[in-house]
Write a structure and sequence with these properties.
This protein is an alpha/beta fold. It contains ten helices and nine strands. Helices cover 48% and strands 18% of the residues. The structure holds ligand C2E and magnesium ion (3 copies). One of its GO terms (molecular function) is catalytic activity.
Amino acid sequence: YQAKQRGIAVSLFHLDQAKVLERRVMIEKELHEGMETEQVYLEYQPKIDLLSGQIEGVEALARWNHPELGMVSPAEFVTIAEQSAQIHRLGRRVLDLACRQLMQWRGEGINLSMAVNLSAQELQNEQLPDYIASLLSRYQIGPRQLEIELTETAIMGNVDRSIALLERIRALGIRVAVDDFGTGYSSFSYLNQLPIASIKIDRTFVSQLGRTTSQRGDAETIIRAIVGLAHNLDLQVVAEGVETPLQQSYLQRLRCDQGQGYLFCRPTSAGEVTRLIREQGSLLAQEAG
Ligand code: C2E
Ligand code: MG
Ligand code: MG
Ligand code: MG
């Protein structure tokens, strides 16, 4: 009886595994077509100035609407792209779409900065700075309008090569941000050695701010330390994943420069960003205090 039960469990397990594998193979195989068509596109999430509530820039986030699978999250397809060497094509596609959108916004009289996320492997690609430079000239975009986001883990994977490549990107006039700060190596010691302009505090710290647990004090202390250090190094600080007015008011008190999160705006279409900018209203929550 036991053996039979185990047999069923084992075959269910295999069925599960087979489904997971099947989906993976499908994504890996069809991502190429997705990238060549409108299936893969960008959404834009505003970065808000925490004093004025105005939109100062946006982050481009890749989206894939698969004809059968529906929306596939970037956590899934970016990871598969990284493992199947398609990440370079995806990165080029995202950069191209982002720059094209910047050009369109400029035509509409809107001057925004746009941040693009890059993966670790892209940071090892010696051709990347030239590719970015070619986009800037093709779309007639000023380098200050483009920003690159990289996680600590991506940078520290091969720190000397990463710094060399980031120096070349910075030499173009493009700013670099450390994404998800505090989750990787989280060492303050290398921050002053990186050619970066800002850091983005990971949302795990931000989400603890509104909570009445003993952890709240820790998150507050950590954020205060990060902001203090960053400002001493002339770096801007962005808080990720701001979801409540209470978190907003903590971050304002802690002197964070910018915030990003569902409280202000979810990732959305370019048209919606245009509309929000034309309205010129503050996206800050009013009842915070
Ligand atoms: P990330 O760069 O740290 O982006 C922030 C993620 O948090 C986004 O998820 C965003 O939708 C989500 N988010 C924003 N505000 C909130 C909030 O208030 N609460 C919560 N819970 N989440 C919030 P998304 O779009 O699913 O992207 C996930 C990750 O996938 C990104 O993390 C980034 O690492 C990666 N990614 C997205 N697009 C690209 C891309 O074009 N290239 C590469 N290499 N990676 C990308
Ligand atoms: Mg990011
Ligand atoms: Mg992030
Ligand atoms: Mg993140």
